[in-house]
Amino acid sequence: MLVAAACCPHPPLLVPQVAQGSAAGLDALRAACDAAVADLLACHPDSVLVLGSAPRAGRWPQGAAGSLRPYGVDLQAGGTGGDGLPLSLTVGAWLLDRAGWVGRRAYVATSGGAGEPEPVAENVDDPGERLAVLCMADGSAMRFAGAPGHLDERAETFDGGVAAALRDGDAAALAALDLDLGAQLWAGGVSAWRELGRRLSTHGRPCARLLHDAAPYGVGYLVASWRWD
Fold first, then answer.
1. What one-character DSSP code corresponds to residue 42?
2. How far apart are CA 218 and CA 189, in angstroms?
């Protein structure tokens, strides 16, 4: 039984040890992510599924871990089973660690490619388990001229559509996001949002809150909390 979902972005700078002297610049985003994860865990799930986007789809079990060494910090998030989690899931693991979650967790990455696994199907419809989903997804990276992908005037409208879907608890709108347009706008979370929406569209409208909507580095960072409990 699905009880809650949260959506957070996954910039490495979300982790203060990575951001170092510029950590305060993302204090509001960090606080919103903490609030979304707190909402998630307040629903007393039996397990948390961390869902994110990556170049290749994959699944990782309870003990999987990710490393932030590629970003200059000798810091591991998650369990002790190596450091094979992609960035989106590593930051998701870090958020759960930060919140003190010691219960069951699993990790799934989706790339939007054909023939990849259906990550949420095996748990969402299990009436015997209280499941929460933490979806890690970045918006477009073209919100202004200094953004990583420079300026694309479609980016703000695209991110606005995602924000509206998250604010309204509209899973169908997430499932219908344009994967090709997202790729053109360097939106790193479209396949994860689509998968989340596709799998949650049969669960009715949740109690939804949009906790954060900003683009401090020209990248759309959206945080939301959905609860059915």
1. H
2. 15
Distance CA 159, CA 216 (A): 13
Q: Nearest 10 degrees: CA dihedral of 137, 143, 145, 146?
A: -40
Residue (of 65, 61, 76, 66) closest to 107 by Cα position: 61
pTM of the model: 0.93
For residue 108, what are the β-bridge partners? 51, 59
**DSSP state string for 135-193:** EE----S-SSTTSTT---THHHHHHHHHHHHHHHT-HHHHHT--HHHHHHTT-TTHHHH
What does the pLDDT look like over 109-147, one tens digit per residue? 998 765 554 454 444 556 678 999 999 999 999 999 888
- Kindly list the domain boundaries of the chain, sorted by start residue: 2-227
CATH 3.40.190.10 for the 2-227 domain, yes or no: no
